[in-house]
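so i finally got all the pieces together for this one. its two components total, 674 residues if u count the protein bits. some of the lines might not be protein, just check the labels. i wanna see the whole assembly predicted at once instead of chain by chain like last time, that was a mess tbh
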Amino acid sequence: MRRLVRVIFLAVVFFIPDPASAAEEVSVPEILELGAELAGEEITVEGELVGDYGFRGDGSMWTQLNGDAYVDQPLREGGSPVGANIGIALRTPVELTGALDPPGGYRNRGPVVRVTGIWKYHDSTRPGESYLEVQSLTITEPGRQLGEEVNWTTFTFGALLLAAAGVVALLIRPED
Amino acid sequence: MLIRPVAEDFRVIGFYMGRIFLVVAAASLLPLAWAGIAREWNPFGSFLLMTGVFALLGVIGVRLAARESELDWSHGMVVVALTWLIVPIIGAIPLLLSGHFGRPLDAFFDAMSGVTTTGLSLLSDVDHLASSLNFWRHFLQFLGGQGIILAALTIFAGTGGITLYFGEARDERILPSVTSTARFIWAVSVVHLIFGVTALGLVGWLVLGFDFDRSIFHGLMIFFAGFDTGGFSPQSTSIGYYHSAIFEGVTGLLMVAGAMSFGLHYAMWRGPRRSVFANLETRTILSTFGFTMVLTLVGLAATGLFVNAAGLTRQGLFQILSAHTGTGFSTVPSAELAKWGGLAFGGVAIAMALGGMGSSTAGGVKSLRIGLTIKAVVNQIRQVLLPEHALVGTAYHQSGRKHLTPALVQSVMIISLLYVALYLLGAGIGLAYGIPLQESLFESVSASANVGLSVGVTDPSMPILLELTYMVQMWAGRLEFVAVFSLLGFAYAWVRGK
């Protein structure tokens, strides 16, 4: 009997899909394009966390998930400037956030995560806001620092121009 | 007969432009210091280069051009128009060197959009932009909203102060002297800066749960762009990034303060406050705001995008406030704004076209002109309906009792018609490139009225001619045409004059 129960349990665990795999997989641009059509649906989306982590009093953490060309190829690592960022807001229970690397910004590429949740489109409980109510979060790529190669030519030219301005100011007196 | 400008004309113009460049060079030390403190060395180098260019041009102008002499009306207008053209060109240097733009013209576009407090942007990946460059973009809006010339006039006025002051699209002098007026405007702005940044920073820190330093950063950026009705934001999702009704409320108050004329600020500071609501301009803007608000809300309700009245009202109110004040912040993505369609779309577009108050940081036709035009039309109708010898009153209240003279009506009508022509120009060029009428018109009005709301037409892949058109619209719209026409006339006289 115990053996039978164990078999049934394993079969249930094995065959019942986890919440993430049941959700429809979409991209951030698709969410913005389809907006209303996805309202209330469970979806899975992947992208980079950017901006800030806002830990609010209600036990949620708000941040932005970008799904644009710069996730794969940041500008400072040879990416091309192809346009504005494409992002959506995430509202995540604090207990799911764990130890996330700092969000993406000038100094770093934020962690790339795969999140599953309910797409709230112009939510009635938060008047008119659209966001993803996150139910599960997996880090697919940790955040990393972005290097900064200093362009000494601009330094030199800038200093030379300032010096030239000083010389002109000192040497040439306005006519009386 | 056209008289060709002589060397002395260029010397006078060069001298005053030199002074203004020196003031801008001093102002550009702020982003330079920011980059140094934040240890953002690449931006630091580009700010050093920009400061060097401003300083050298400034010194050359002041030292080599001429000694201070009388600045007549045409010289003053040329100085203003050229300043508003050259400052964004040089101000674009750090943006261009940031690597966030595909072509130099795009960086110039953003600098022009910043200075003219428009807010349309071609910047790629703002979410990874250096904080010092973000500061520069927003500070450009502050500098432009206050008025580059006004900044210079606070330090020096000279004999040409009044010409320069009026050239920068300001039509009222609040205090007896230009310098004291300029200082009053700065005082109003500094008080708003202190309260605005504190309020936004506290909301960011205590309500949104941001780190303290990031809260202050967001507060400062949104203050610059909100009070000066600019519309840039440090994150790609604009005010929608904050997901907070309180944050939107504080931002809304700043936008309203920015769209108020500084004369009205003076009346509210020094009283009598009751007269504020007697002003034709105040009554007009309240009426047009109410009208466009109703249009937008009814239109939004018809779209069925919102499931309850609270959401519809919150989103509609913010977008219409942003459009009418000429700010350009949004809480919905461009793609969604484009889908609004019908009355809601029309409401936002009309609000953008009408704009804020005169002598404020807002753009558009301006409320006083709308009010005077309506009054002139009503008077005309009454004149027709009343007996032949009946006298129709021409008085109106605007900081005191004034009379609607034919000359005033003519001037108001001409500027209003020029705005309409400017709106149609951009729309026509957009149409020629195959962009639908609704979107072409919306984006064109947004550029000309220095608003910055976008339905996605403004994009790095946009045609160069359309990009140039929007830049001219931003420039001419901000200066309200007179200085731009003066510069064109000056250039024409230089080529064809005798």
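Chain B has a mean pLDDT of 91.
Chain B touches chain A through 71 residues (CB under 8 Å).
anyway lmk what u think
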